Amino acid sequence: MKRQIILGFFLLFMFSVSAQSVDQKWGIGIGSGVYGSLENGGLGYMPELTFSRYISPSFDVSLTGNLGLANNKIVSNLDVVLASLHGHYKLYNGLILPETSQLKPYVYGGPGYIWDNDGESLNFDLGLGLKYNIKRNVALYAQGGYIMGATIKSQSYTSGTTTIEMVGGKLREDLWKAVVGIQITIGGSKDSDGDGVPDKKDKCPNTPRDIFVDEHGCPIDTDGDGVIDHLDACPTEPGLTSTNGCPDEDKDGIPDKDDACPDEKGTKANNGCPDPLSRKAETKETDPSKMTAAEAIESGNTRVLDIKVKPVYFVVDDSNLTSFSKNRIANLVEMLLKNPAYLVRLWGYTDDLASDSYNQKLSEKRAESVMRFMTSMGFDRSRIVSSNGLGEANPAVPNSSEQNRKMNRRVEFEIFVAE
User: Fold this and answer.
1) By the 8 A CB rule, do 405 and 224 touch?
2) Per the CATH hierarchy, to which homologous superfamily does domain 286-418 belong?
3) What is the model's pTM?
4) Are the CB atoms for 9 and 63 separated by under 8 Å?
5) Which of 186, 233, 273, 293 could join 261 via S-S bond, C-beta 3.0 to 4.6 A?
6) How far apart are CA 59 and CA 38, in angstroms?
């Protein structure tokens, strides 16, 4: 009978997983923890071995074995043996929490077979679990739950050296457990280009290695300009193929990052500016205040200038400046150095893909990255009145699409003077 029940569990497990696609992966986990009786107390050691299978974004199935050892209320070293078939409902299924969540909670439950109190019977388990991926195929997990004990129909049973007499009816000792462990994902479909997307789903199966790809296995084009990021000299700014993916506002063939006059057509010989002899006379700029930066800050009476400075943008989950961003900041610093009374504030932002605390730190890092680059260009740190990170607050556009999120991964500038 025991063999038939165990064989039934195994066949049910195999049937559950064999119907899945070849792209879905197996997992093996090993853990250890403690267990005890809900009725009689006691505490023992509980190792665990589990085999699991991905079913869908919402469900997994697992076959789990546990031993109850060295319980301080039991003389025998081996107290409980448990085999269970669990269904897992994943809360990180895109409906409750994002599938990309760092912490992955789930609910588990299912039938099992238990040997306990010199008896054996079918039982049921129910509990909560949490996973945290430390690598793409390796996760730490923790779970705790209820174990329905073995139902004994005999008139007496032995617990250690004590024999308990029963007047009739049934005895059942329910248990609890708490276990932590590690799970490794194995198997899966062939992935010829090693980009993490199986060949069956990969629309770009020959992508060069070490290139970020989307869910279809194709190289990412962050700014959507048709030039993929690893070939794009300005991956966060929509640009032209002819300028290696960089913007060219005046269409003179010189990318804005190298153009000293990005709003006027010019020549390469003049760094993107028109020939001085052909330029029209320009209105002389109004002289800025002669106040020093320290005097301007001390006065406390400031006026924001109507100087439009485009933000600098960042790749997802990154605070490093791109080459395009560095050129934009360098042009800004050049203008600020010519106007010694001009002061600046920096505001760092993120999209909404991570937690509030993570985004807050990332936005601060982005603002700091801009500040460090400005000072490295010779700009006086005292003229940067503030450098703040505001996380995912004040989005430039709603975070409703990946294209919009690109516009929210930014640092903005505010130029002002003292009056």
Assistant:
1) no
2) OmpA-like domain (3.30.1330.60)
3) 0.45
4) yes
5) 273
6) 29
